[in-house]
Each structure stands twice: as C-alpha cells, then as structure tokens.
Amino acid sequence: MELVIIGAAIGCMVMWAILVCRRLTILNENVSRAMSRIGVQLSLCFDAVMEFLEETGRYAGDPRIIMEAVNRCRTPLTGSSTPEEVKRQENVLSDALRRIRTAAAKYPGLTKSRVYVGTMGAVDGYLKTADTGRLIYNDNVTKLNRELIMFPTSLMGRMLGLNKREYLAATEFIKE
C-alpha cells in the first residue's frame, strides 16, 4: 500500500512538472511570437520608406544618403530580439522619417503627391500595428515574468533556462 501512495505522489509530481514546463514554454513562445510580429511591421515600414525614397529622389535631390544610412543600420528583428534592438531600429526609422518630412517641407509638391500621401499612410498603419504588437508583447511578458517569479514554478523556469524578459517602451515617432 505504501508503494502505491509513493508511486501516486511521484506520478503527481511528474505530471505537475510536465504541466508547468508546458505552460512556461507556451508563455515564452507567445513572447517570442509577439516580438516577431513587431519585427515584421517595422520591416514593412522600412520597405515603404525605402520605396518612397527611390520614387521621390527628384524632389529631395539624391536620396541615397538617407537610403544608405537606413540600410546600414537596419537589421531584421526576430523572436529572440531584445527591446534594445527594437529601440535601435525604431530610432533609425524615426530618423529616416524626420529627414523625409524635413525634405517634404522644402518641396510642397511632394506632400501633395500620391506617392507621399500613400507612403505616409502606410507607414502610419505599420506603426499603429507595431504599437498594438508592443501591447501584446508587454502583456505576454507580464504573464511570463509573473510565472517565473512564483515559487515553485520559478524552479522549473530556472531548469528550463528561462529568464524574465524586458518590456518594450513606447516610441514617439514624428507626426506631420
């Protein structure tokens, strides 16, 4: 009888460990997936900016300076990217948008062009979607971090090599 009780207790502990590992893995994957979505939106935003620069070179003179700076600093974001890497990419993007808007102020015809209006509308849409992704990311980070600080789940988290994740701070992009 004692062996049955010991076996049941061990079985319960193993089932608990499996369930906790599964929950932590899912939470960690949700954080990574949210980061990847932000990366996709920022990449689409970069693509729109680059396409805009290629098409409007006649207004701003030679847009290659901005394009080279953007391409040199642009790196793809993945699920394992850090908030610091996101911030760096957003700063590059913000700088490019500031330069575009400065050039557009010098050429009033540019701000009325279909290409400019369409591109800036697309950029704003991508940035809003990235902001929504930031909220989802931060919500998932909260859930994961909460699990990682609670005992005894924290022990399983350490065994899996999971650490608390950093939150993404909001970025202010220059608006027209």
Descriptive notes:
By secondary structure, the chain is an all-alpha fold. It has one domain: de novo design (two linked rop proteins) (Up-down Bundle). The chain has seven helices and no strands. α1 (2-55) packs parallel to α4 (83-106). The termini are far apart. The model has no long low-confidence stretch (mean pLDDT 84).
Quick synopsis:
The protein has 176 residues and is mainly α.
The oligomeric state is: single chain
Task: Please write the CATH class name.
Answer: Mainly Alpha
Name of the CATH superfamily: LemA-like domain
Class computed from helices, strands and strand pairing = mainly alpha
Order of helices and strands: HHHHHHH
End-to-end CA span: 77 Å
DSSP, total strands? 0
Mean pLDDT: 84
Keywords:
rod-shaped, 176 residues, single chain, de novo design (two linked rop proteins), mainly alpha
Topology summary:
Elements: H1 2-55, H2 57-60, H3 64-73, H4 83-106, H5 108-112, H6 114-149, H7 153-160
